[in-house]
Amino acid sequence: MEFENKDTFFKVLALLTSVITLWLEGAILYLVISRTKFLPFFVIGGILNSVFEIITNIKLLYVAIVKLKRLDNLLEVTREEIDEEELDHTCVICQHDIEFGKMLECKHVFHLK
Questions:
Q1: pTM for this structure?
Q2: How many CA atoms within 13 Å lie on the side-chain side of 74?
Q3: Closest alpha carbon to 102 in 110, 90, 93
Q4: Terminal Cα-to-Cα distance of the chain (whole angstroms)
Q5: What is the pLDDT of residues 51-63, one digit of tens each?
Q6: What would the DSSP string read from start to end of 6-50?
Q7: For 20-40, how does the pLDDT look when each residue is reduced to its tens digit (9 = 90+)?
Q8: Nearest to residue 63, comparing CAs of 105, 15, 108, 106?
Q9: C-alpha 53 chain-centroid distance
Q10: What is the C-alpha separation between 109 and 29, in angstroms, rounded?
């Protein structure tokens, strides 16, 4: 399966999973309290863990979005532009020739896909 921004997609999926888990644990807490009239501490630990997980997933998603925006702001270059500037037309990541890619501030060029 090939699609762009896999990392961001899976971070959103992890966040949604955490939110659903928190909702389910809250529903269990409500049912236990309404039926037994006591506060089960074992459920509260799971709820606190889910809240912490949601906060962590939000932070990770934010960092991923910021990195994607920084990547989008890089200069797009073609093989002709690389040759004009007399730069190395080898991708710094995969070591293959580049026909179209992105240029870093240090003038290294890499494939976007």
A1: 0.69
A2: 20
A3: 110
A4: 14
A5: 999 999 999 999 9
A6: HHHHHHHHHHHHHHHHHHHHHHHHHHHHHHH-S--HHHHHHHHHH
A7: 999 999 998 898 889 988 888
A8: 15
A9: 15
A10: 54
